[in-house]
Design goal:
Distance between the termini: 126 Å
Oligomer: single chain
Order of helices and strands: HEEEEEEEEEEEEEEEEEEH
Mean pLDDT: 83
CATH architecture of the largest domain: Sandwich
CATH topology of the largest domain: Immunoglobulin-like
Largest sheet: 6 strands, mixed
Strand content: 35-45%
Helix content: 25-40%
Low-confidence stretches: 1-10, 20-47, 162-170
Number of helices: 2
Number of domains: 4
Amino acid sequence: MMESNYVKGNSVLVKRIRNSIGMAIMAAMVLAVLLSSQSYAQSATDSTNVLKVSPVRSDIQVKPGESKTVQVNVSNLTNGPVTVSPIQNDFISADESGSPALILDADTYAPTHSLKRFLTTISNVTIAAGKTVTIDVVIKVPVGTQAGGYFGAIRFTPATPANGGQVSLSPNVASLILLTVPGPTTEKLDLTHFDIQQNGNTGSNFRTGSGLGVYIRFENKGNIQEGPFGKITVKSGSKVVSEADFNITEPKDQILPDSARRWTVPLLNIGDFGHYTVTATLSYGQSNETIEVSKSFWVIPQWAIIVAIALIVVLIGLIVLTIFMIRRRIRKRLHRKTHGISRYRR
């Protein structure tokens, strides 16, 4: 009986060991699959870095009835030849940060300000390994075209695989073109926000002077892209604390017609206590329209607020105590007078 139990115990122990080994083998296989998948994903991500384009953006002017050629340089970053297909797209503003949203449908144009209508067809081009080619983008503006702004993009994507591999759908690069057709235009920017913010929160008093910035937002109500620029000055009383240039680098950030754009400019050299005034002088347009705006704010640390509250409480206490003492004296005097008259009558 004891031998039978011993054999059964050994059998159960063997089964458990086999199960553990089997689970370990399965875990190792799953881990190997995950690692190989991660390695493949990493290599796929690395393989998407195929092309490079410059310039990223071109700002040009073409009169109605004339044409102009924009030269775009496309570089092959791989170790094999790549045939590149140029694709023409209009774009609109994707958000208020200035990101473009390409209209990828080949048969669709932007509802307004379409540059794609002015672009001539561009043939595919083969770029040798590690080489750069210059592609001519010809823009023809028809006679009678309304003055204003037009914008689009030339997107370059591999038409054939590099090194005999598969063509990735993602490795395409784009060069943006912003066209101005001269003539009578409507230039109108509305400054909708000029706020002092800290960590994205607007306010007029803050506990600390770090992480502050001025939030600027424009809406373009005209029919041409605008690049506002200017200077921002911070003062504490009559003392200039700091100055910052706004959107002066070339090419300037542009606001497309019928869209809005926002910026946040850091405010530097703000102390831990004090009253500050931020003043901005901003300009835009061919006639240098000027907008001047200012906003004030306080920096009051937490300890200062606590001390101020404590002083107020003490002051209120002193006032109450003074009123109480005055009333007490008045009562005593009235009491003495009343008793004095009573004694006199007796």
